[in-house]
Amino acid sequence: MSVQIDESLVRRIARLSRLALDDGEVALFTRQLGDILRYVEQLESLETEIAADAVDASPSHANTWREDEPGCCLTPEQALANAPQSRNGCFITPAALDQTSGA
Length: 103
Description:
Layout: H1 7-16, H2 23-44, H3 76-80, E1 86-87, E2 90-91
Antiparallel strand pairs: 1-2
Helix pairs in contact: 1-2
């Protein structure tokens, strides 16, 4: 891996993620992301061939899923009882995308 983390990259990632970071946070995240990448590089150098057989310790033929059985359901009134906002039997949620930004 040859990705270098610098403040301009952290600012770009923050902008794409719509995060408002101050200079202190940019410096902190630059250092932390660099540390993470260095750790991943260390992990890439480990010999893992002998551990490949130990990935799945459970027998592959055992199905641990429960039976799919219907249970009791909430009424629409119960489902909406704790909703911050509802209208005509539906949840009202904030818009997921900002329609004014053109993104």
